[in-house]
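[SOLVED] Need 3D model of a two-part complex

Original post:
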Amino acid sequence: MNVGKNTLVAIDNAGLCISNKWLVRGVTMSVSTGEIVTLVGPNGSGKSTTAKIALGVMVPSEGDLYRRENARVSYVPQKLPINWTMPLRVDRFISLTRVVDKKEIKRVLSLTETEHLYDAEVRTLSGGEFQRILLARAIAHSPQLLVLDEPVQGVDFNGEIALYKLIEKIRSEINCGIILVSHDLHVVMSSTDRVICLNGHVCCSGTPAKVATDPAFRTLFGDRAADELAFYKHQHQREHPSDQLLKNGINDGYGASSQINKKITRHIKGKQNV
Amino acid sequence: MFDDFFTRAVVGGVGLALFAGPLGCFIVWRRLAYFGDTLAHSALLGVAMALLLDMNITLTVFIISVVVSMLLILLQRKSVLTSDALLGLLAHGTLAIGLVFLAFMTWVRVDLMGFLFGDILAITVEDIAVIWFGGITVVIILSVIWKSLLASTVSYEIAVAEGLKPDLANLVFMVLMAGIIAIAMKIVGVLLITALLIIPAATSRKFSVSPEIMAVIASIFGAASVWLGLEGSLKWDTPAGPSIVVAALAFFIISLLPLPKFKRQENEKHNPSSASEVSNQ
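Solution:
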């Protein structure tokens, strides 16, 4: 297993078997400081399980796991049934596992555009609002590793883009490692450093550009998804005028996403300068 | 000060209720009402064992409750049955074994009613010492595991992922439950322990904005129920344990009544239009 100075989590050939069924097997991945690793794959492909193995919530039945000791970890789980009998307001919820002061709570709530929910009862929140609060809680106190399992489910379209933007911003600001489980290929891929495509095992992995051209990815997700990825790849390179046309055509409906792409392109350029 | 049996009952009972409040809240939050009941039922097996082996009753009840909790955890991991079925199995299994044991021991005459419904008026100074010493220990331990326990009540996975120790906290919580049940048996009896844990917590829900406040208010309601129940029991010559539970229930019913709401008036001020719309219809 390749564990460097900046490695936060490394999984080597890990698998999890429950009741004689392999939920996931042969997974190798690692996340370092300042890196976004995205897990994609169809339902039941082991994305959440892999994330939980990386977190130490589930213990792998085989393979090796390295986790940096005493790293500050934050987790947005895929599902969180809220207990109706416990009085729990947003400010208290954000302080659930680590004490967060009032100023910091207000800061993270404003980042997720939910300042007005400061003293709302958690059980009265809508699905999208709750998802924002979960993200706000996770980014409080600058985590070193952030694991986000479908963090924008139920969030409206504009909000979705804004939240992905926020995740991207947090990564560059506090330089944390992020494991992102997502279905939204079109938005996520552009900000991802590495994609791991799962289907019970790792079927392909690498940069979004590399994965997009991988036949295994095309088989699993179909041509449309692969083209979407490929489209982003081209956009970054900005070589062909025809791509520009394509972009304009598509951006009629996705005005906001082009802004992100510009931003991300800038970010990538910035990195190259360093 | 403790010469009077009634004073002893109040001091012991109020102490128990104060310490039971926060545990009762966790029972409500974690849907463990039936777990409390199971431990309480198994307490009778503890009584039988204590008489058989000539051991201290409170200690034996505590040990048996801990054993039953661990058994439950084990069965939950190994078995295909759901928790409620397992709890029913353990509750009535241990109760039945306890009763059969007691029947075999023809040489002891047991006041079964005393164990089932408690005998708070027979409380001794030593009992009071056990309650307050044990209770304070319970609260200190609970405050140490509070963060982990609360976080894992909201989300076990978040608690593990973010570096807390929910498994240890859960284990300690089960032991604390066993402890409070062993202490409480003498006061309200096996059949009514869960009531003293749950009802004050349920009552306090409405008046609380945070888990911590709910725990404190549950303690206050519990203590008030004990005091009121004992006063009533003295006045009308009713059994003490059930009277305490009836008092707790009375508080709960009062809490259900619509309060004179200041908030509603505020809302009407903010939305005069909606109020007038309703009246027009």
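Edit: The mean pLDDT of chain A is 79.
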